[in-house]
Amino acid sequence: MITPTHQIEHIGGIPYIFEILKELQIIRILNEVYSPHRNWVGLPIGETIAFWICYCLTENDHRMCPLEKWVTTKKNLLEKLIGSPFSPKCFTDDHLARILSLLHDNELWNQFESELNRSTLRIYGLTNENIVRLDMTTVNSNGIVNENGIIQFGNSKDDSSLPQIKIVLSVLDTLGLPLTVSVVPGNCADDPLYIPAMEQVKKSTGQSGLLFVGDCKMGAIATRLHSVLNDDHYLCPLSEVSHSTQEIHSAIKAHQESNLSFTQVSRTYYDGSDAIIAEGFEKTMSYSMEHEGKNITWEERLIYAKSFAHAKKFRLLFDEQVKTAFIEIKSMNKRGKGRAIYRTIEEAKEKVTAILGDKRLTDVFDVEYIEHISETPKRKYGDKPARMERSTRIGVKPTINLPALLKAQELLGWRVYVTNKPENELSMQDVVLTYRDQYIIEHQFHRLKGKALSIAPMFIQRDDRIDGLVKFLTIVMRPLVIIEKKVRDSLKRRGQGLSGLFEYNPTKTVNNPRTERIIEFFKGIYLLVSFYGEQVFYTVTGINQKHREILSLMNVDMNAYTQLGSIQESVFKISER
């Protein structure tokens, strides 16, 4: 009698992730661009990176050292996916580090990125607006700072005590699909990075007439001129340096004095409801600049918009500033140990100016300076005769100018955007809503630095491998974005959300589920490998109707799992999730 033996492998969402990678042609393009060295041993680079991507997405970990063990525990599954055996030694950390060094080669990477983008855009196409979003972020590193290295100290929102690298990313609207990426030293300023990023996008996608959207650092005149010269468009807010608060206020006043009305901006939310979120106006200006001996002239639109949500938020902050400043000015009159005594009006004014700081507060306050003179009799002492000693102390009396306060409150929440896109192609409402969707690229940065891809903190030391790792993780982002788009588009077409994804609230229905949540939902699927002598039987367990529904929403054929073995169906009970 033959005693059967069994092996159980956790497969989760790996089969459909692998199918998405094949659909995006990531594996094929990697193998075509990165032709292995004649001494290359093991799996081709495309299949190696594909399995590494599956590991990243299912384990929320990009590290190289655990991958060999992970592959060993899923060898039957992975061999089924590629149709051939391989050795787990293909996934040692040394082997993976060599792959990162290959990705560092900018010439090969640009070729791969370009072919992958054009392949993806053939499937999904650019949006009608051809919108590309640009932004930068920093990632802290525990590496050693070298004079010519990419790890440098610089301005950081994360931890300024650690050195960092800077990542320049462009994504396609509205997918959030990464188009291009580059890694620069952590001490680089943002302003000069936009033009190279724009050029990289145009070469990679083969598209022109793009609308580049960025933050106020993209508003440098050289960047705007570059867009005009290349028949592209730009949209960004203007900084205080480019367009001061006083200029904004003057434009608003002139518009109001002309008895012109404000244009309202509305937004439609997921539940179909509409709400007015802002109001504003615009004006057109002609800009002229000399370039290579020629005078270049173009028209810009300045869109002045007041966000009601921002106005409410800033009003709370402003009112708190007014209250705090009033208390601090009043406290100048208090006397006691450690408190300053102001002997001249100039000293008192200097202190009041320091307290108010912001010009808006200065306009709101009227401060009266009161001179207190006191005389104190002094007895004769030594050679000094008896006398009356005079001393001066300056008191302050702050009052709030109510009309000025109301005016300042009305001006809160205003911002000015600049674009060279004509109004018939991009209305004022489209300008405001398009920039508000800048969270699309921020969301990809959160993925890069958060749990999904967890690039920070970075422990890799070599510059070439740091660069290769960032590039690799942008490949990982692509299936995350594509799966999300597929499911959301399918839910929108059928007009019904997806329920059962959340264990803490099984009846919760969502119209925009995140890929990370979907991958987590598939964690209960296993591959059972049974050995009966020389016979081997494969059984996939844990799949239920909800899994089939999600696969259908992703347009992934059930064959992704049936090719692995016979399916042992599970009953999906919403109360169990």
UniProtKB/TrEMBL annotation:
GO terms of biological process kind: DNA transposition
Organism: Methanospirillum purgamenti
One Pfam assignment: DDE_Tnp_1
InterPro entries: IS1634_transpos, Transposase_11
Signal peptide feature range: none
Limits of the Transposase IS4-like domain: 165-455
Recorded GO MF terms: DNA binding; transposase activity
Membrane-spanning intervals of the chain: none
Name the record gives this protein: IS1634 family transposase
